[in-house]
Structure formats: structure tokens, C-alpha cells
Amino acid sequence: MIREERIKAFAELGKRISNLSEEEVKSLSHAAKAANGWFTYESVKNALEGVVFMLEKEKLKKWIANYDLTQVPKAVGVIMAGNIPLVGFHDLLSVLISGHCAVVKPSSNDDFLTGKVMEWLIETEPGIKKNIEVREKLTQIDAVIATGSDNTARYFEYYFKDIPRIIRKNRTSVAVLTGEETGEELRNLGEDIFSYFGLGCRNVSKVFTPKGLDLKEVFPYFKNYETITHHNKYRNNYDYYKSIFLVNKTPHLDTGFLLIHSTEDLISPVSVLYHQEYDTIENLKKTMLKPKEEKIQCVVGKDDIPFGTTQQPEPWDYADNADTLKFLTELSD
Q1: Disulfide: which of 135, 173, 189, 320 matches 298 by Cβ 3.0-4.6 Å?
Q2: Which long-range contacts link 105-108 to residues 24+ away (Cβ below 8 Å)?
Q3: Is 290:220 a contact under the CB 8 Å cutoff?
Q4: Residue 312 half-sphere exposure toward CB, CA atoms < 13 A
Q5: How far apart are CA 9 and CA 15, in angstroms?
């Protein structure tokens, strides 16, 4: 398949997903939730909308325009995470649109949706079927893109040490407030915090605020998310960490559905938002953000990624800032 055919196939996949009815999305989410209790209707709907957003034809053309895409296919293993729905889709897209063969190992937490999207893609363009293979064990591959925890990353590094690889570890996102945010921006920040229950690396797990800003003033803008505690798994996390804070007499703020804890730590557990004050933006970047940049996926704020958009990445927004297409095109060298 030439690049134009690959672009067309994915653009048509985007159209197909965009035409799914509400009942179809509900059916998909019901099946997905059977394997992963975090996959609610809203989460699956958001993930599908994110795929559609990424697969606009003009975006795909713009994305790959500056790459010399291979005509010599390699077998590229894709080990997917399963923390949020379709989190491994961009890696699949990158491998296939570059002309390589994707040897896919979906997460058991997300194999239904991943399988369904691959099925739709093959139905849209049958010629791409020869470039997709699902395997439980990845052997006899030429390269690999693997996503996991810090612990599994060490295993991946050792196991795939003899082939080209991109190995992703735990990351999170942060927000920088200046005190000049509008009500709409603060409401949008809630989307960055609460979407997918905060399970994604693009979810904001920590907020930096200037000294003197009363964080309680921000709470009313999160009110739309107070029903999040109706979800059993989230509620269990909230109750657990609230009890831990109370037993240990750990200072914290409690909105009734989110716990805020001031700490220098970065990656917070589900239902907890970390917080830290700063004196100047310059000092914040130098002493708090720069030293931890390998753990930060997105920085949200007036001078960075707009509030409310962390879960709407463009095709060229690479996880861990690792240029996946560059990596894939260099496999033919």
C-alpha cells in the first residue's frame, strides 16, 4: 500500500467511528467494562472521540509530510497499556501508516476495544490485514514499542536489548496556575484532572499555584465532577486515601470527591490531587519542572497546553516526547 492509501484507510476509519450511534457506543462500553471496570460509557466515548479527532485526513497528511516513510516493511512489536481505553492506538497508527507490520500485544484490560478498532480498519481497507498480527508472545520482531510501568520497563529493556526500541515508563501531567485563570479555564482544568478517573499519563495529577492563592477558591469550578464518587472503584480509592490521611493526621483538603495534598511528589493516586506552591514562574520551571521533566507528559497552563485539552492529542503529540515516526522511518537505514 502506498502512503495515500494508508492515509485514506485511517481517515475512513475515523469517519466510521464518528458515525457510531449512541446505542453502539453503549454496547461497546458494556463489553469493554466486562474486562476493565474503569471503562465506563463516558470513558469509551471520550476515547473514540479522541481517535476521530486524530484521524482527520488533513491532519494525517500534515503529520507524515516531513517523513520519508519506508517501503521496506519491518515487523514492529507493539506492547500496549490498558489504563485507559485505546491508549495504544497511536502506536498502532504510527506503525501501520509508516508502512511497517504491527505485531500487536494488546493489554488484557483493553483487548476488546483494540480488537474492534483493528477489525474496523481491516473492513475499511482489507489490504492492510497482512500488516497486522496479534500475538501473545513477541518473538522474531525487528523493533518494538512498549508501554508499561517503571517496573515492566526494566524488563522490556532487558528482554528487547538487542533490537531498536522505544520503552515508555510511568508519566503524569501537571497544571500551572497563575491566579489569573477564568472560570471557564478552571472548569476545563477539571476535565484534565477527572477524565478517565485520572488514570492516564495525560491527566493532571498535580497543580502548582503561586504563593497566596487560596486553592479553595478553585473548588467550586470542579462541582460538575462531584458525581464521580458514584463509581465504585473511584469511591473505594477516595475512601481509602481519606482514611489514610485521617489516621496519619496528614494535612489535606477534602472537596467531598477529591483529596488535595501538598507535597513535592508528582504522581498522585486515584482520587488525590497533589499541590505545591511556587514563588516565580522562572523558579518553578528551573527547580520544580526541569528536574522532573522525564516524568512529566504535559504541562497545562496559559503558556503551555490549554486547559481541558490534555486528552485531545494531535497525531504529532508523541508520548514521552519520543518521535515515533522518526524511530520507525530509521528502521530501514
Answers
A1: 173
A2: 105/77, 105/78, 105/79, 105/80, 105/134, 105/135, 105/136, 105/137, 105/138, 106/80, 106/82, 106/134, 107/80, 107/81, 107/82, 108/35, 108/82
A3: no
A4: 13
A5: 10
DSSP 8-class letter at 257:
S
Q: What phi, psi does 39 have (nearest 5°)?
A: -85, 85
Task: Please state the separation of Cα 22 from the chain's center in Å.
Answer: 23
HSE of 134 in the Cβ direction (CA atoms, 13 Å)? 12
Residues belonging to the chain: 333
Strand (E) or helix (H) holding 113: helix 111-124
Q: For the residues 241-263, what does the mean pLDDT come to?
A: 97
Place of cell 486524530: 54
User: Model confidence over 75-99: pLDDT tens digits?
Assistant: 999 999 999 999 999 999 999 999 9
Q: For residue 75, what is the enclosing H or E element?
A: strand 75-79
Cα separation of 86 and 229, whole Å? 24
Give the CA count within 13 Å in the CB-facing half-sphere of 321. Answer: 10
How much of the chain, in percent, has pLDDT values that exceed 90? 92
Q: Where are the beta strands (DSSP E) in 171-320?
A: 172-176, 204-210, 253-254, 259-262, 272-278, 296-300
